[in-house]
Every structure is written in structure tokens, then in C-alpha cells.
Write a structure and sequence with these properties.
Elements lengths: L2 E5 L3 H13 L3 E5 L2 H11 L3 E5 L7 H11 L5 E5 L4 H9 L4 E4 L4 H16 L11 E4 L2 E4 L4 E4 L2 E2 L4 H11 L5 E3 H9 L7 H14 L10 E4 L3 E4 L3
Parallel strand pairs: 1-2, 1-3, 3-4, 4-5
Antiparallel strand pairs: 6-7, 7-8, 8-9, 10-12, 11-12
Helix pairs in contact: 2-3, 4-8, 6-7, 6-8, 7-8
């Protein structure tokens, strides 16, 4: 049973989602504000956070950034009633691993939660038979231990960031379309969520200290997707 921290200010939505998730065998703690959510985070120790973007007081973006300041690996799914691309991209760049637009069906949210938790548990595609630790210049990727280090210093990666890097680096030089990465990393089988990939690449490049205009490892293939370059 996974522990889900639900932060949602609308009482009807909060109660409905919490009930639906409990029926799917999740242990749910539900709070109405970002401040309450951050307090509950310490005591409840969730496996994943489902976070409403539009919260009173401490906003969902503030909560997301607050969580990432203390825990880079805790999975976060952002829930928003606003489908505006700018809001979604800002949320993803703040550290969310995935997002859903409300109203969302319980089975869809449950599927997203389970997919993110599988990533957090270390399901790593395209790595079978590869060496335990791969070294690319200053970057070391431990595929068995699921750790990444740059110049000998560990890099704390969120589940989607780690899985994205593992997928790309397992096949240096191969170009992956955004759709291929969506299916491999996020397990999304539909089009239209390229922003998930782009935001995750941006976060990953930042953590890897990649120069914005001349990244060393993750290269953009314009009009198609990304490839990993092994120095």
C-alpha cells in the first residue's frame, strides 16, 4: 500500500479523490493548504504527493519548490484545473514529475500514481546486460545502484529525471523522439505531452551543470527529440 499525500483546497474534490484513492488501496493523508501539507509531509512520510497547483496562501508552486529544497527524489504529481500550457510548464520546471488536469478520473490518477511509483522504485528500461557503472567523461551512471555522480559528486535526481537519463545514456548517439521518451519514461501512450519531456530535460541539464547553449551530454535534435552524446 502506497502512502499518498493529497494537497487540495476544494473540500468536495479533496474528499472525492481521497475516497477514490483509498478504494484503490492507497493510504491517503489529505490537507487543504500548502502549509498543512508541508507540516504533514514530515509526519506522514508519503511515497508520493498529489498537489493542486492553485492553492490559497502557499501556492502549489511554492509547495513543489519547498519539497524539492529538502527532497529531490519524492515523486510529485501536479493536479490543476487550468490546462494553460504556461502554468503546466512552470509547475513541471518547479520539480513536478507528472501532471493531471482536473477533473480527472480516479482510474487515470491511480494509473499515473502507480507509473510514477514504478519509476521511483527503479524500473530502468533498455539497461539489461549493460555494465553496472558507465562513465561518460565526468559523468558516472550506476545502473544497478541507480545513482549518478558528476566529478565524483552525487547528483540527486527525481524519478523522472533519473529514468530519462538512464534511457538516453543506455544508447549513446541514438536519437529519441519525444513520443518515444514519453512512452519509455512516463508510460504515456498518447501524444501532446512533449512539455513533460522538455521540462524534465531542462531540469536534468541544470543539475548536470550543462551550459544552456552548448550542452555536453544531452543534445537537442530540432524538430524531433534528444540524444545522449558520450564525450
Amino acid at each position: 500500500m502506497s502512502r499518498v499525500l493529497l494537497i487540495e483546497d476544494d473540500p468536495a474534490v479533496r474528499e472525492g479523490v481521497a475516497l477514490a484513492l483509498r478504494r484503490q488501496n492507497h493510504d491517503v493523508a489529505a490537507t487543504a493548504t500548502g502549509e498543512e501539507g508541508m507540516d504533514r509531509l514530515r509526519a506522514f512520510r508519503p511515497d508520493i504527493v498529489v498537489l493542486d497547483l492553485m492553492l490559497p496562501g502557499m501556492t502549489g508552486l511554492d509547495v513543489c519548490r519547498g519539497i524539492r529544497a529538502v527532497d529531490q527524489t519524492l515523486p510529485i504529481i501536479m493536479a490543476t484545473a487550468r490546462g494553460d500550457e504556461v502554468d503546466i510548464v512552470v509547475g513541471l520546471e518547479a520539480g513536478a514529475d507528472d501532471y493531471v488536469v482536473k477533473p480527472v478520473l480516479a482510474r487515470v490518477l491511480d494509473a499515473r500514481i502507480r507509473a510514477v511509483l514504478r519509476r521511483a522504485a527503479g524500473s530502468t528500461p533498455r539497461t539489461e546486460g549493460l555494465p553496472k557503472i558507465d562513465t561518460y567523461g565526468d559523468l558516472a551512471v550506476d545502473r544497478a545502484g541507480l545513482t549518478v555522480a558528476l566529478n565524483g559528486e552525487p547528483i540527486a535526481l527525481a524519478p523522472s529525471e533519473l529514468r530519462l537519463l538512464l534511457t538516453l545514456s543506455a544508447s549513446p548517439g541514438q536519437v529519441f523522439s519525444r513520443q518515444q521518451l514519453l512512452e519509455a519514461v512516463w508510460e504515456h501512450d498518447y501524444h501532446g505531452d512533449a512539455r513533460l519531456v522538455d521540462a524534465c530535460v531542462k531540469r536534468l541539464r541544470t543539475k548536470m551543470s550543462e551550459p544552456p547553449r552548448a550542452p555536453r551530454y544531452i543534445h537537442t535534435v530540432r524538430g524531433f527529440g534528444y540524444r545522449f552524446a558520450a564525450p
